[in-house]
Structure formats: structure tokens, C-alpha cells
Design goal:
Layout (H helix, E strand, L loop, with lengths): L2 H12 L4 H21 L13 H30 L1 H9 L4 H41 L12 H28 L2 H4 L14 H23 L9 H37 L6 H16 L1 H26 L1 H8 L4 E3 L2 H13 L4 E7 L1 E6 L15 E8 L12 E5 L3 H7 L5 E6 L4 E10 L6 H4 L4 E4 L1 H9 L11 E7 L5 H10 L9 E2 H44 L1 H9 L4 H34 L8 H32 L2
Amino acid sequence: MNINYLIYRNLKKNIKNYYLYVFALIFSVALYFAFVTLQYDPALDEMKDTVKGAAGIGTASVLLVAIVAIFLLYANTIFIKRRSKEIGLFQLIGLTKGKIFRILSSENLILYFGSMLIGIFIGFSCSRLLLMVLFKVIDVEAQASLNFSTQALIQTVIVFAAIYLLIMIMNFTFIKRQSILSLFRVVSTTENNVRRKPLIEIILGILGIGLILYGYYVSTKLFSGDFLEMTELFMAMILILGSVIIGTYLFYKGSVSFIFNVIRKSKGGYLSLGEVLSLSSIMFRMKSNALLLTIITTVSALAIGLLSLSYISYYSAEKSAEQSVPNHFSVLYEDDAAKFTEALQKNNIEFKETRREVTMVDMDASKIISSDIGKKDNNIMTLAIVSDATVEGVDVSPGEALFAGTNDALTQFMGLRDKGEIELLGQTDSVKLNLIGTDKEGVVSWYYSGSLSAAIVDQTVYERLAKDFNPELQRESRMYLGIDIVDSSKLQQANELYTEMGFADKPGYLSQPQLVMNQKSNMGLIMFIVAFLGLTFLITSGCILYFKQMDEGEEERPNYTILRKLGFTQGNLLRGIQFKQLFNFGIPLIVGLSHSYFAVKSGWFFFGTELWMPMILVMLLYTALYSIFALLSVLFYKRVIKESL
């Protein structure tokens, strides 16, 4: 029997154990090659005025390499340990460690580079589809064509060849260090089944949960005004990150085991078959896998959080544009308004005009702000005021004021209340008013209101303050001119006219469609990149957990054989396995979702106007994809149980 025949037989024998590894490798190569192909695609020149497409995708490809490299190295570690007995047998029959390394290297070479070729082909086939998706997301009208990039091919081959060399070094080191006896004992010593003392479990469990809850609490205060300086804010973020990560590790190390131990003791030690197959196994394996689960949970939370924030910004593009400018278009001067409306009439585009006189005043907001942010300036803020006579459907009394165009960032960051007493300050006079509420719909563009709201006051109050205005506070134009297009199908045509007349480049001139387009272009690329990086991590981390279950399933195969001989059916055993997988995959998922929720909740208002819908959609999608690997694990155990007798 020569070595080539051994390589062929071993490859054929072990191919069933490598199918998911091969799938993940093909997926990783395909995604990486498609990403790099996009980076060198000339069609990205269409995005030159909005985003740095090639640079963004290039940066993402580096992160992608890191994720894939860690995954492939970890997967190789699991598979080389599973073949330790086989390696030991090779040594017993007289093969040297060098020849054994040659056999394993040849097998890996065939699988690895065979999968890589398939992945490159799939990546090339899907690159046009990815480019079409990218153009759709960033709202760019361009032709996506199928282009093969030699640069992308060379870069992909170099990257994955380097990963292959790392895998070979890892295999050589493993074979070199192991003796024949240790090779037969590798699998049985991979899990630490030594129980900790109950007191230590209790301390670790309580400390882990306490650190996580403390991190959550600080995150709720992050942008509430408690941290005024950038240094304080940065230190608070480091504190949250450290507290949650360490707490998560201790949670897996002590909390899960402690909680399950309490459940077991509450039953007096009399556990059902399902509980034996699930609780008892998880109690010990959670501790030994604490570091791995902490990494998976943390990166999952990061992926979900970043995707949620980018989708919030993308989802809120229209609402954010409406808050920046309440009408489709705004101009500052009557001459420009006349030119634009004349152009609209020539093109048979029906429109409506909105005119509001605007006066800038100082406001004492000390009684409506709960945070300490404004104390350095004695709570004096500059805002725009308009008369209620110019706002349709609004009527306030002479002693009242209504804020319009408020945003969640202002409310959260400055602690702005929706009711209280304010004082509007003229040059020589002042007026105290009762704030009766806030409204997110704006009445003037941000050119006047800035980051603050605009105040709607009674006509008599407005006239009083308009006569006593401070010239240093006023904008170049005191008349807000807004233009709305009646037929929404002609909005894009009107925006092209607005741009052609040069208004889009003038300070203070705003186009609602252009603002939407700019935000979708910028956040669309980020969302596209984060989504694919998150999908890559989801696939790789799901595969890692699945590989662990394969490893545990093979290790527990003798136990299932004994239980089957005692008369337990496949259904009896499978119910316990299903419960076990619910915890193995469910606990990291739930903890990751919880981390991402508090991370997003702490600062979502800086990214958009909508929180729940974008975040829930992202979490549901992530959960659905993650559940696929739990189902695959159950199916694998089902096969193991079936073959155990």
C-alpha cells in the first residue's frame, strides 16, 4: 500500500466529516473574491461624489480575511484533533511523522484549493449580482456588468494561500508535539468535566450577571448628559465594553452552570432522560467553552448592533430629510424662488409655495433641560421663532409656545422636556412663555433652526420680538421660502432642474430628494459592507458551534449506544438533544441580542428617527439564519443516534 493510495482512502473516508468545512470555505472564498472584484470594478466610479466605494470595500475585505482566517484555523484544530487516533495508528504501523504530515497536507491541499477554485467561480458569478444590490441600496443608477479582475484573482490566491500555510504550520506543530499515547487521549481530554466548588460558582455567577447589568445601566446614561467631556465619554465606553465582555465570560463560566445546578438540586437529583442529555452536558461544557462563546457573543452583538445602526440611518433617510427641510425644496431669496418656479411652470410641474418670516432670538432654557450640558453657557440657546399665523393647523395662545422639528438626539442628549417655562430674549425686551409640547415635524429648514427646534408663538408675541431683534443673531434672509411638488412622480425631474440651476451647491439651499439620496448613498454602502461582514461571521460562528456539536456527538456516541440497548427509542433521545441544542445555540444568541439592544438603544438617535422597526427586522433575520445551524446540529445528532445501535 503506497502513500498515494492512503491519501485517496483517507480522503474518501473523511469527506463526510468535511462537507460543512468545505461549504464554509467555498462561501468565504466566494464572498471575498466577490468583494475584491467589486473593489476593482470600474462601475464604482459612479459613486465618486457620494462615497469612497473602493476604499470602503477594501477595508471590509481586510476584516473579512481576519474573520475567515480565524474560522479556518479553528475549524482545522477541531478536525485535526478528531483524527488524532488515526494519526496514532499511522505511527503504530511504522509511518514517520513526516510521512503522516505529507498525507494530511495532501488531503488538505486537494480539499482546500479545490474548494477555493469553486469559490472563485461562484464569487465571479455572483459579483454582478452583488454590484446590482449595492447600486440598488445606495440608489445609484448605473449599469452593472460582469467583469473578471485579474488583480482580484491574484489577491484572493495570495490571501488564501497564506491561510493554508498557517494551517500547515499548525498541523505540523500538532503532529510533532504529540506522542502515540497522547494521540489516543486527545479527544477524551478536550473537555474539562471537573466541577467547581458551589461557592465559587455562586460568586462567578453573581459577578458575571452583575457586571453585565452594570454595563447595561451605564449605557443608558451614556448620552444623557452625565458625561460632559469627551474624555469622560470615552472612559465610559471603555467601562461598558470591559464590564459586558468580562461579565459575559463569567456568565458562561459560572452563571449557566450555577443555574442548572440549582435546577438539578431542586429535583433532588432525579432527572429525566431529556434533562440528563441536556442540562448535565451543558453544565460542564459551557465552562470549558466560555472563552469561545464569549468571543462569538461579543462579535455577534457587534455585528447586529452595527447593522441595526446603519439600517436605522438608511431606514430614516426620508424622515431625517423632512426634519432638515419640511418642504421638497427651499431657497433663501425671492429672485431665486421666482426663477425656480418659472422653470417648474415651463416644464408643466405643479407646485405649492410656503412662506414664513423667521426671527432668531436667544432663549433661556434652564427650566426645560434636565442635563448639565448647557450650564457652561447659562442655558442660553439661539433658536428660530415663527408666527402661528404662518403654520397651517396650529394656534397657540399669547402665553404659550410649541417646539417644531425636535429630534430624538436633542431630546436624549440635552434632556429636553416637552413642557416647562422658557424665556425668549430680545435686544431690550424678554417674553416668558409656557412650552406646551414638542412636534417632530419641522416648519423651517435647519439653515435657520440648526440642531435646535424652531418655536411657534402667537402672532402678537412674534411681532413684539421681531421689532426687538438682535441683528447679530439673524440669518442672511429672514424669509423661509419652501416649494412642494404636487405630483410626486415629477419630484425627480424638479430636483434635476434645481440642481441644473446651481441651487444645490449654494449654502442654505436645501433639496429634500437630494438629502435622501445622499444619506442612502453614504449609509447604504456601510450597511452593505456591515451586512456581508455580519453574514460571514454568522456563517463562520454557526459552523464553529456546529463543529463543536459534531465533536461532542462523536464523543457521546458510546453513551447513546448504551441507552439504546437499555430500551430508549430514538424519539426519547432526540427530545433531550433538541433541548440541548436550544441552549447551546439559544444562550449565545439571546445574550448577543441583549448586548446589541442596549448598545443600539444608547445612541440610536444620532443615526436616524426610527428605532424599533429597523432593529427588530435585523434581529429577526439574524435569529432565523442562526437557527439553521441549530437545526443542522439536531439532524447530525439524529444520524448519530440512529447509527449508535
